[in-house]
Amino acid sequence: MTGLYIVMYHYVRPIADSKYPGIKGLELTLFEKQIQFFNDNFSVVTMEQVVDAACRGIELPENALLLTFDDGYIDHYQYVFPILQKYSMQGSFFVPSAVVKYGKVLDVNKIHFILACSKIEELMPKVMSMLNEYRDSGYNIESNKVLFDNLAVANRWDCKEVIFVKRLLQGYLEEDVRNEMVSRLFEDIVGESEKEFSEKLYLNKEQITEMKNAGMYFGLHGEEHYWLNKLPIEKMMKDIDNSMAFFDEILDKDNLVINYPYGGYNNAVLDYAKKIGCKLGLGVEPGVANVKIGNAYALPRFDTNDFPPKSDRYMEYSNDNKLN
Ligand SMILES: [Zn+2]
């Protein structure tokens, strides 16, 4: 078998000295240390090599490792790209097309900055009173206690209150209510204009083209960054089609890869990914990917925090892991 460590990154920036020191991401100095560690201990491979392994059975080198960067942050151009070039490594980038197409900020990112700019003890009462308000004005929303009991479960990175806010606002409530709640909280707590914030947060098409021309890989991450497995099938297909169409010149159709937002996939999503010609699909469960023919549409990925200098957690997963 061909084992592969896939590493997932989101924000990579100088965080401590920034305007948003509370944002959850990787400090730039630690990123370069991590890249140095990979350079010393792993063989960083290209996405094209992984597709070859999955489609043609071509073996990957020992300790193969793939670098993936989600969500189209400008960090990936400003900070990541120069470091990858310095080490002659390829990064694979997955940009939800809506962030480049429209000058808006995805709800998932607004939620990150709402959380970064407020104490959770202060945010919780605001969220709870908004829920009461929408419930009183006729929306069918369960009681705050039932919502909290159902949604508040701590995970590897966040306490239960943070998970509650994320799950509630990223998908649990009806779309119109949660969009409105997120916008109100963003305005109240972050207080920046959405258009200017969007320009400072995301890659633009020129930057993407420059990175692509320098050998970086770009794949699919949907249009609106939906949980694809929770959408009606038509809407799921449309979301993927829109992102394909928008990045037509950037995507490599012979080596097409889909990265499911939030790791959300089901059989319908997998079938559609195969139908449109995807060769691989990436999830978010940690584990060593077993890349072989017929087993490439739900590859596990480690988080950057699973590797030095943050931790040694990747070592808890053996090369024989069959999670995928
Ligand atoms: Zn994403």
Explain what you see.
- The chain folds into two domains: 3-95 and 203-316, Alpha-Beta Barrel (TIM Barrel); 107-196, no CATH class.
- The chain is 44% helix and 11% strand.
- It has helices at 28-41, 47-56, 75-86, 98-101, 107-116, 120-136, 144-151, 160-172, 175-190, 194-201, 205-213, 233-246, 267-275; strands at 3-9, 12-13, 26-27, 43-44, 64-70, 91-94, 217-219, 257-259, 280-282, 289-290, 302-303.
- The strands form three sheets. Strands 1, 4, 5, 6, 7, 10 and 11 form a seven-stranded mixed sheet that branches. It has a two-stranded parallel ribbon with strand order 2-3. A two-stranded parallel sheet has the order 8-9.
- Helix 13 (267-275) links the parallel strand 8 (257-259) and strand 9 (280-282).
- Helix 1 (28-41) packs parallel to helix 3, helix 5 packs parallel to helix 9 and helix 8 packs across helix 9.
- The structure holds zinc ion (ZN).
